[in-house]
Amino acid sequence: AQAIAQPSESESAFELASGRVRAAVASRVTRDEAHSLSDEQIAALHSGSPQGLTPVGRATHNEIKTYLKNVVTHLRGAHQWPDELAHVLVIGPGENIEEVQAVLEELPGIQTLHIVDPFRSVLNTMERDLPIYLADHAELTAHVTLYRSTVLQLPDPLAGTVQVVVINRVLSGAFFYLEKLQQAYQEIARALAPNGVLLLGEQ
Known about the structure:
Elements (H helix, E strand, L loop, with lengths): L8 H18 L2 E3 L7 H7 L15 H17 L9 E5 L6 H9 L5 E6 L2 H16 L7 E6 L13 E7 L9 H14 E10 L2
Parallel strand pairs: 1-4, 2-3, 2-5, 3-4, 5-6
């Protein structure tokens, strides 16, 4: 019979320590169910949209990082960048965590990152993968709150609190008629703090 190699004492200790780090980080990624919407509410908000409620393609990690770097550099040079990033909101980040990674990396100092998406699959991915990513990047200390919601009705606790909103390839005439686009921009304006910044990326 072939012997099975057993992990050394140092390997076991490392794995145990890594598990504890990830468990601690996982507590920083939470869902706010109280301010999330039901299937029926989301469907009603998006009824009549040109393509209905469908996931869309996303830019790559490097594309988003380059865009954020350029815009933030410009705004800082023009003295139009917030002094602190207590609350940053990402709307509709898509099926992987690349956009969220880019935001965390290019906007250092975020205290709380809020993520809004209408798809359960997206939130499940965030809840699964973000603790692993954060555990590997100890310099990132943000807490992350997940909401199942939509740009057409942002969670009430965000009203007037958000220094930066990031929304990429979500607001488009292919997905929203003019009336709904106006509603979306009104919701973003409602969430922004005084002198807050909207970073809007569209094709």
